[in-house]
Specification:
With 126 residues, this protein is α/β, with parallel strands linked by helices. 48% of the residues lie in helices and 13% in strands.
């Protein structure tokens, strides 16, 4: 048995040569990994609809959907999540992941509803 076989996938040598992908952060959770891969596969057929657009993700959690949309389309995705712990985790993952596009994750719970709506509206063309 190779010593590396006992390490998590994101610690293996071949993975040290590249920045971590979003999948590296969910590969230890089969449900999240399947959700992520299924969403990416399904989005490929919708790529032309979301290509180069700015899209909202309300209830973004730690950014799984944001990462999938951004990776498939290169679009800008603005995510809003009320749970600050998820925002911190998501911001870290999105920052560390090698994602083409511009995912931005905002903490929505700290903003009054009207302010959050106005802040988001500023990012989207009418």
């Amino acid at each position: 048995m190779n010593v590396q076989d006992s390490f998590p996938a994101k610690w293996k040598f071949e993975n040290m040569m590249r920045p971590p992908a979003f999948l590296d952060y969910v590969n230890d959770n089969p449900v999240e990994e399947k959700r992520y891969l299924t969403l990416k596969k399904d989005l490929k057929s919708l790529r032309d609809l979301v290509l180069n657009r700015c899209l909202p993700d309300f209830g973004a959690s730690y950014g799984l959907s944001m990462a999938a949309v951004t990776e498939v389309s290169g679009s800008t995705v603005i995510g809003v999540e009320p749970d600050e712990k998820r925002v911190r985790r998501g911001a870290h993952i999105l920052r560390e992941s090698e994602i083409i596009g511009t995912p931005r994750l905002l903490a929505g719970a700290c903003l009054p509803a009207a302010t959050a709506t106005q802040s988001l509206a500023a990012h989207f063309p009418s």
